[in-house]
Amino acid sequence: MITYSAVVLAAGQGKRMNAGKNKQFLMIGKDPLIIHTLNPFMNDSSCKEIILVIQKNEQEQFKHLLQSYQLLSKVILIDGGKERQDSVYQGLKAVTQDFVMIHDGARPFITVKELQQLLNRTELTHAAIFAVPVTDTIKKVSGKKLETLDRSVLWAAQTPQAFSLPLIKKAHQHALDNHFLGTDDASLVEEIGHAVEIVEGSYHNMKLTTPEDLKRAEAIWVETTKNEVKE
Ligand SMILES: Nc1ccn([C@@H]2O[C@H](COP(=O)(O)OP(=O)(O)OP(=O)(O)O)[C@@H](O)[C@H]2O)c(=O)n1
Ligand SMILES: C[C@](O)(CO)[C@H](O)COP(=O)(O)O
C-alpha cells in the first residue's frame, strides 16, 4: 500500500462564516472543527504526515490546540498565503511522500475508509478527487441571459483531492508562471492536460462556509456519532 502526505488548509479568513474568529476553531459537538478534520488523517496509517497550513498570526493558537489534543506528533505547521491556491503551494513545499491529499480544513466529515478509497484510485491515475452529482438545477447567468445547464453531467467537486507529488507540483508551478487562479487543485491539473478521476463521495462531506452550514454540521455530527455508538 502506498503512503501519502496530507496538506490540510486552515489559513482562510472565514469571511462568509462571519464568526469573528477562524472558523476552524468553531465547535462541532465537543471538539473544534479542525480537530474533526484532522482525526481521520491521524488514524489513517497510510498518512505519514499532516502539513497543516495556517495563518502566521495563529501559530500559537494552533500549537496550543494541537498540544491539548496530543496531535503534534504527525502535524507540521506551515504559514499559508493570500489565496487558497497560495496556501496549497506553500504546503506542497513541505511534502516528503510521493503522493499527497489536499483537503479543506473546513470539511470535517471525511472518513478513513474514504481516504483509503481515494488513495487506491490515485495510485492508478495519479489524480483523483471526491465529488457528488449536483441535486439542484444549475443556471448559468450572464447579465440578463439565463442558461439552464444539463444537470446530468454536473458534479460538485469536494476535497480531499489527491495527486502524485510531481504532477501537482508541476500543475501549481504552471499556474504560478501563467497567473492562473483556480478554485480547486484539480483545475490546475486539468489546465496542464492531465485527466482527473472523479470518485463519488458523500453528501455528508460538506464544507463549512456560512453560519447555516454550522447548524447542518452539528446535525451530521449527532447522526454519525449515534451510528458509531450503534455499530
Ligand atoms: N488563503 C486561504 C484561503 C482558504 N484557505 C482554506 O481553504 C479552505 C476552503 O476555503 P473556504 O471555505 O473559502 O475558507 P475561507 O477562505 O476561510 O472562507 P471565506 O472565503 O468565507 O473567507 C478553508 O479550510 C480555508 O481555511 C487557506 O488555507 N488559505
Ligand atoms: C476546493 C473546494 O472545496 C472544491 O469544492 C472549493 O473550491 C473551495 O472553495 P473556497 O471558496 O476556497 O471554499
List the main descriptive attributes of the protein structure presented here.
Spore Coat Polysaccharide Biosynthesis Protein SpsA, Chain A; seven-stranded mixed β-sheet; two-stranded antiparallel sheet; globular; binds cytidine-5'-triphosphate; binds ligand LQXTBERG
Description:
The chain is of the alpha/beta class and 231 residues long. It has one domain (4-229): Spore Coat Polysaccharide Biosynthesis Protein SpsA, Chain A, CATH 3.90.550.10. Helix content is 36%, strand content 26%. The protein is built from 7 helices and 11 strands. The chain has helices at residues 33-43, 59-68, 84-92, 112-125, 165-177, 185-191, 211-230, and strands at residues 4-10, 27-28, 31-32, 47-54, 75-79, 99-104, 127-133, 139-142, 145-148, 155-164, 197-200. Strands 5-4-1-6-10-7-11 form a 7-stranded mixed β-sheet, sandwiched between helices. Strands 2-3 form a two-stranded antiparallel sheet. α5 crosses α6 (185-191). Residues 84, 104, 157-159, 183-184, 207, 209 line the site of ligand LQXTBERG. Belongs to the IspD/TarI cytidylyltransferase family. IspD subfamily. The record marks 151, 207 as: Positions MEP for the nucleophilic attack. It is an enzyme of class 2 (transferase).
